[in-house]
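can u do me a favor
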């Protein structure tokens, strides 16, 4: 309760928590875009989502170690992860498309464990970060600080979301992806190569995760086992927003970031993860209750 009293006595702390929450929420949104895309088009819940984010961070780390500026890591990580995503689709994912969702969950869970162990063997278990070279902004007489790299990450997430939206809306391949999401069988009858569409969708998801990982390693840290929190948060955001609802993903991601920050401040950092998992349970129960009500209404 002392933290709550502190928050009431110094409202500027709430401003700090909201700003930090919005900035981290934008990163959650970026990872969730890809999960929503794969889930909506291929009916696959990608448990390896967080591990793709983690790999994007390590690609950026290699870019920096090669002597290139850290921001070059964003497009490089997206390009490398696009290839990785395509390879994963051709090796594993295409075998579970149109199968029971539980099988796809098991398959992507296996991929996540494989990528974790691979990263642990190649890069080690140490926590890694990349110095962006950016500083901080000071607001309200220095009482509120805003990290410039987190602002850049926020702007990057917004730009990538707009690019994805325009790609799906305007390009021929984007229209094919939307058609396959609505009715894959009809799309095949109309001559759309759904196999290519699925491969592109999964690769696009991996590219988004790669860009996310590049921003994460500059703003926060990465290690081989950091993927699960991003997977859980992406799942929560998509469940709340619903499939194919990009504005909903943005609202849910930003809201989750703010809620998580307040929970971490009020309950303590050690309970922040517990809050996220508890919230996931509440959301699943709420969704199940809503679906049950809808089924009763249809009867």
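np, heres the sequence
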């Amino acid at each position: 309760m002392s933290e709550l009293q502190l928050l009431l006595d110094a409202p500027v702390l709430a401003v700090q928590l909201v700003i930090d929450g919005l900035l981290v929420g934008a990163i959650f949104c970026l990872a969730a875009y890809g999960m929503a895309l794969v889930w909506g088009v291929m009916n696959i819940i990608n448990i390896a989502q967080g591990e793709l984010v983690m790999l994007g961070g390590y690609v950026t780390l290699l870019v920096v170690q090669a002597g290139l500026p850290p921001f070059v890591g964003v497009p490089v990580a997206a390009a490398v992860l696009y290839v990785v995503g395509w390879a994963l689709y051709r090796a594993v994912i295409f075998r579970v498309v149109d199968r029971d969702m539980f099988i796809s969950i098991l398959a992507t869970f296996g991929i996540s464990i494989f990528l974790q162990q691979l990263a642990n063997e190649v890069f080690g278990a140490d926590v890694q970060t990349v110095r962006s070279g950016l500083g901080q902004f000071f607001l309200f007489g220095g009482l509120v600080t805003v990290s410039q790299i987190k602002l850049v990450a926020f702007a990057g997430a917004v730009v990538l979301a707009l690019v994805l939206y325009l790609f799906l809306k305007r390009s021929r391949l984007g229209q094919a992806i939307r058609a396959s999401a609505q009715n894959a069988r009809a799309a095949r009858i109309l001559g759309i190569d759904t196999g290519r569409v699925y491969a592109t969708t999964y690769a696009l998801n991996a590219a988004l995760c790669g860009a996310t990982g590049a921003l994460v390693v500059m703003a926060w840290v990465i290690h081989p086992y950091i993927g699960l929190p991003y997977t859980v948060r992406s799942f929560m955001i998509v469940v709340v927003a619903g499939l194919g609802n990009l504005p909903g993903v943005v609202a849910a991601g930003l809201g989750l970031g703010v809620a998580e920050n307040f929970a971490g401040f009020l309950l303590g950092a050690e309970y922040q993860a517990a809050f996220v998992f508890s919230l996931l349970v509440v959301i699943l129960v709420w969704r199940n209750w809503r679906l049950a009500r809808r089924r009763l209404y249809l009867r």
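The CA atoms of residues 48 and 112 lie 4 Å apart. hope that helps!!
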